[in-house]
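Q: Could you fold this chain for me?
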Amino acid sequence: MTEISPFKATVYNHDKVKDLSKVYCPPYDVISKKDQSMYYKRSPYNFIRIELNKESAGDNARDNQFSRAKKTLDRWLKSGILSEDKEKCFYFYSQEYYYKGERKSRLGFLGLLKLKHSSKAGVFPHENTHLAAKENRLELIKKVKANTSPIFVIFSDTDRIMKRIFDKYILGNQPIIDVYDVEKVGTKIWRLSDPAAIDLLKKCMEDKSIYIADGHHRFEVGQEFCNLMRKKKKVFTGNEDFNYIMTYFTDLNAKDLQILPIHRLIKKIPNDISALQGYFSIEKIKDKYELFALLRKAGFAEHAYGLYKGGNFYLLRFNNSANLDEFIETGSKELKSLDVSILQHVIFKKLNIKDKDVIYIKDEDAAIETINDNKAEAVFLLNPVKIDQLRAIAGGGEKMPPKSTYFYPKVLSGLTINRFSSLK
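A: Sure. Below is the predicted structure, expressed as structure tokens.
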């Protein structure tokens, strides 16, 4: 059974912070060093100082990015920059944005998801994680004793639960947050405190399977932190606040749920790619516009890849879809049929491309520019993972290769903070 709960979010105090548009940032894992500096400059109260505090050459066990994040949180609470809501709420969250010139919107809500450690817990991750990222987030949560940014999950809302509750209890009310971020994504937040609506939402979610879209590292860290705190407790009930993780919920059936591909920049690649012949048809394409159009069209029915190297564009079509077992020994048919799996097990193996020479990038134009600037030798361009593939693989207990999906837009950090009052 899926258990969710409202919570008393810690939020920015509107009386103290006049321009809320400058204080939010994305989750830590999509923030580059350049972006980190930019967010630092946007406001002295930008949440980057908690979410991803800068490292320093003089960092040590007592003074480091995590201890500074803790000091910043404490200082902002003491000065009133941040304050805790007086009652438990769910927080409805609307995002409006443009993608390739098309206007889109996504509705979800923020709440707490109870952490369960059974394999039958009804929460399905879809990607493998990296140890270094988990270690980083564990150090932060141990210091600040709070969820600073939510995990992002999807569920099948065929009964339109969210929309019905939003229309009945929220539509027409003024949002508590109404901002645009640096990517021009419009964000609106409303509190839902009505007891009847809260009970309805909790009840309707009980039978839902939950698929993690974004935040796999934070989810695993939440479980690990819960176990650490559990061992410290003489009496453990399972209902302590650290048994829950702050979560953004949205509908996996929504037409504007946007999954973007993550492309692969290659630092070193053979000049001769003839090793792929016989496995792929390789067609030279005149420019990137034609390539992107052909790649998207091909993606509906076959495994196809764009390749840019040496100033030339190519379209690669996989010829051996029926013989994937020849290349990929383990995993379900769905996992083997992922474009990223074929890329990794066939293309990279045939061209002897090493993991250390692969860089992940979501912006295809930036990837092409990187090649033109001679900062890498090639880029493989992919189509996005389909939602049905994610459900089948995650629901079957399998994991995709890292960086298989990029859900867009990201859920902002700093909109709500979930502090563990039992650990204060």
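A (continued): Residues 262-383 form one domain.
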